[in-house]
Amino acid sequence: MLPLIVGHANALDLLLSARKVTSDEAMRMGLVNRVYPADTLLENTMAYVRDLVDYVSPRAMAVIKRQLYEVPFQTLAEAVTYANHEMALSIRSEDFREGVAHFVERRPPRFSGK
């Protein structure tokens, strides 16, 4: 997975040298996508997690993660077929209906993960 995240050259460098990298370098190579000062790390991490818990359907999150992890091993045709299948299932899910309802009713979502 590392070469897919940071590129082949960076992966080789990190794995062969086992050197420590700075937060700025980790950000530049795509190893991390956010950097916070140590004294606000927990606060910012918890705010991000809270946002995911409050506003993202657990079902949708699982589908997205599964697709991202499987796509490197699929052809384009397989990935499109799988994505279309998941979209059809998603549209019929409880979480999809709740997502529409919370938007229309202007209230926080209450996702079930189903």
From TrEMBL:
Q: Which family does it belong to?
A: Belongs to the enoyl-CoA hydratase/isomerase family.
The record, for Gene3D superfamilies, names: 2-enoyl-CoA Hydratase, Chain A, domain 1, Lyase 2-enoyl-coa Hydratase, Chain A, domain 2
Keywords, alphabetical: Isomerase
A single Gene Ontology MF term assigned here is: isomerase activity
Q: What is this protein called?
A: Enoyl-CoA hydratase/isomerase
For this protein, the record's Pfam families field holds: ECH_1
